[in-house]
Amino acid sequence: MPKTAVTRVTHSCHLIEIGGRTFLTDPWFSTRPGYYQGEPIALGIPDLPRLDGVLISHEHYDHCDLDAFAAYRDRSVPLFVAETVVETARRHGFTNVTALRPWEEAEVGGVTITATPAKHGVYEVTFVLRAGSDAVYFAGDTMLIPELAEIPKRLGHISLALLPTNGLHIRPANNMQVVMNADEAAELTAILRPELAVPHHYAFTKGFLGDRLITRSDKNPLRFQDASRDLAPDTSVRIVEPGTRVEL
Amino acid sequence: MGTTTQHTIALDGIGPVQVSVTDHGSGQPFLLLHGGAGLQSVTGFAEKFAAAHDVRVLTPTHPGFGGTDRPEALTTVSDLAALYGALLDQLDLADVTVIGNSMGGWITAEIALLKSPRVSGIVLIDAVGIEVPGHPVADFFSLTMDQVFELTFHDPAPFRFDPTTLPPAAQAVAAGNRAALAVYAGTAMSDPTLAARLGTLEIPTLVLWGESDRIADTDYGRAYAAAIPMARFQVLPDTGHSPQLETPDQVSHAIWDSADTDFAPFSR
Questions:
Q1: Do B230 and A214 touch (CB under 8 A)?
Q2: Which terminal residue of chain B, N or C, has fewer Cβ atoms less than 10 Å from its own Cβ?
Q3: Taking CB atoms and an 8 Å limit, are B120 and A206 in contact across chains?
Q4: Chain A: nearest CA to B165, how far in angstroms?
Q5: Distances from the Cα of A10 to the Cαs of A54, A74, A82, A175, in angstroms?
């Protein structure tokens, strides 16, 4: 059985290897004024391996950079997306686009892809990839919501969880929180009980002024590691630099 | 004291342009653009801001100001925006906050419209450039210097001087500044297309306005902020058209501590 592994590309963009297949999550390969990874982009689009599927949680630019990703060598690659992404994906020339609502599933080469619930500033779904006894949960940049407790009940054991931790708040929207924070991610880790949890979506910055005027976020992933030590002591938390491949 | 360097920037359709840039401090980069009053109207603030916050502040002299040469083909605010966009490329700077006062604010707005990822935020300080019905920018070129001081400052007394007492070289520089301002900004100091174009911006924007500004009044400032999606607007009390000269501590605080500002009282 091939190893299950994850390589962070940047932010919430990962390469996930499971069941001998390779998936890309939430592609982000460029920058715009006020949108910066805050960490390297480990792989350029020409350097991506052959992908068996791409998962896109929602349409925000830092998760759905199709202007850049349209340069990928094969636009017939299967895309599994929130339904709000379908139109823009097709407009960018992707020909094999499937919308998945929460708890709907699809199958690619022996890997089952199940959309799971989410809550964010816009409509979003998260995803579970399963092959045999291994399952990877990709949490995009959701808030912690009660529906996520359904995941292990409905889909069984999660082996690896990729979780946002920056607790992003939008200052002009009455300081509304739109992403789970480190404590909430640790709480979710305790619910999912994976062997391995990897934080993502923490280095993001809107730049000097944007971090002051528009967003407020926790850029320190160690807080998630600390909180998980208390709440989910059986899970190993690894803070992974972009470009590092981590095997389950 | 900053270090001044001459840069040569190749601009499409214009050719090589020489621009003098003074560099203050090091660290997080800021590009600070002067208005019609010339480089000296921002130098003191640049030094103070760089020292107080351990950051780097770059202050270019717009070609034609301060006795520098202006290539004949360099005639518009958009040209200056292209020049500074290319300068940031040449210096390979990232996460740059561009700050501009008066015409410098207009250039800043045009730089934002270039949508370079190098520029992460803009601060417009009593900027000109848009047309606001019922709130025209004062016609600088029809004013006496005494009237300019009256309209520019909350309290003109500390800033007033008699230009006829300047040495001939300084008078020549002042005349050159005036001529360059007329070329770039025109007498109306506005571009009727600018406000609508600003509606396409997604860049973090802070608009600061001197409450006593009578070159461009606070309603003009509110309209400027309203033209830019998500822009935050803040009025500076006891301050006129050149806040970085008159109340530099207020400007420094408004930018550096903007995360702690309750913008609600200033909402439009």
A1: yes
A2: N
A3: yes
A4: 42
A5: 15, 21, 20, 26
